[in-house]
Amino acid sequence: MPTENKRDFDAVAGQWDQEPRRLKLAQDVVEAMRKAIPLNSGMYALDYGCGSGLVTLGLQPFVGHITGADSSPGMLEVLNRKIEAQGLENVATMPLDLEKQNLERSFDLIVSSMTLHHVRDVPALVASLAQALKPGGWLALADLETEDGRFHDDPTGVLHHGFSRDFLTGEFARNGLDGLGVVTAASIEKSAADGSSRRYPVLLCVGHK
């Protein structure tokens, strides 16, 4: 994406986990994934756009190995510190340009949370992730349901204002995935400038190769 519309996640990486709302969102998304997917210790998984690794580490106990991939060195540094501090041997990190879809490995499970709205060509991304699944693998993508653009206080790097259920299932089906399902994985409550409170649903779309 053009640098003038790309959020500097390195600058906020150190404070990312200090927002309780983010911690709760990750917990809710992980729980929804656990309910929707038969996770097992034989799975080799990828968390695409992992950020500080909240979802990565939430899934870690339930899979054989998980790699957190992100374009932000600062975020990956935060996750690497967590991996070292906890002595985790089944978690790795990988720098990845989220716009280029250049996955060279295959996975039993690919997940992503709140990354799609930062990616310009989402259909190309879904196609690339589906292609990177092993036969029998699972794809699980979570992001905001279509909203009016008021969710983000800072719109820098926000390329989509959420996604509809039909769009997500349509892209999954177009790439040969079946067993499709969409659930509301979480609901984020935010205060507006006028003092009112609004809830923004986060959808989780799941498909099987």
Automatic annotation (TrEMBL):
It comes from Geomonas subterranea. The keyword Ribonucleoprotein does not apply. CDD domains: AdoMet_MTases. GO terms for molecular function: methyltransferase activity. Keywords: Methyltransferase, Transferase. Transmembrane segments: none annotated. It comes from the Bacteria. This is Class I SAM-dependent methyltransferase. Pfam families: Methyltransf_23. GO terms for biological process: methylation.
